[in-house]
Amino acid sequence: MTRRHLITIAAGSTVAALVLAWPASAEGPWTLQIVDAETARPLEGAVVLAVWHEKSAAWPHPEWKYHDVDETVSDATGHVTIPARDLSGNSGLRAIVGPRLEIFKTGYGNWRFENDMMPPHPSSEEMRQYDHERWERAARAGLVIGLAPAKTKPERLRVLPSCHPDHRIPIERIPRWVAACDAERVAHGLRPTHPELTR
Question: Which of 97, 6, 9 lies closest to 56, judged by CA?
Fold first, then answer.
């Protein structure tokens, strides 16, 4: 066996190990409470997308592609539940990774996990491990997410570009997200992005 073949095999093994090393999230379900970041008041009607990706072994970097999405809306107490996800098929060559969150509510902008204790300047590995532990906490006891109010028209307009999720998500899978975002656009005199879905 030539040195080149050995290098190729070693590289492929390294990529597979990296996929396997990505900690699978707890399998859920996950409970979140959406609140106003300033008042801690529960927020009803926030649309939450839980996006899943497939990570597979490839050279020189693992390959990522969209896998699935769950769309939920917070209730009167601000709570949402992301359904459980079967991650038993994850392997060294392929893993379903997530959820990654996207959140939108009219009149609000950026969001963050409340009382989050992410270490300062974490390494990539520390970030992955902390993310895994965070979702385990969401499965056990729930997590609180604070949305920052967007109080002025310029602040609300700045939210709109981020109101468009990953273009690979089938738009038919997120009708409440589309309706909420397009209602905000229309309120500011802009054209809806998907009028066929929001009539």
Answer: 97
The pLDDT tens digits for 150-191 are 999 999 999 888 777 778 899 999 999 999 999 999 999 998
CA distance linking residue 193 with residue 186, whole number of Å: 10
Q: Write phi, then psi, for 107 (nearest 5 degrees).
A: 90, 5
**pLDDT tens string 23-32:** 444 588 999 9
Work out the burial of residue 35: count CB atoms within 10 Å of its CB; fewer than 13 is exposed, 13-18 middle, 19 or more buried.
buried
Question: What H or E segment, with its residue span, contains residue 36?
Answer: strand 30-36
- Structural domain boundaries of the chain? 3-188
For 133-146, b where at least 16 C-beta lie within 10 A, e where not — what string? ebbeebbeeebbbb
Q: How many helices (H) and strands (E) does the chain have?
A: 5, 7
Q: Does pTM top 0.85 for this prediction?
A: no
SS3 163: helix
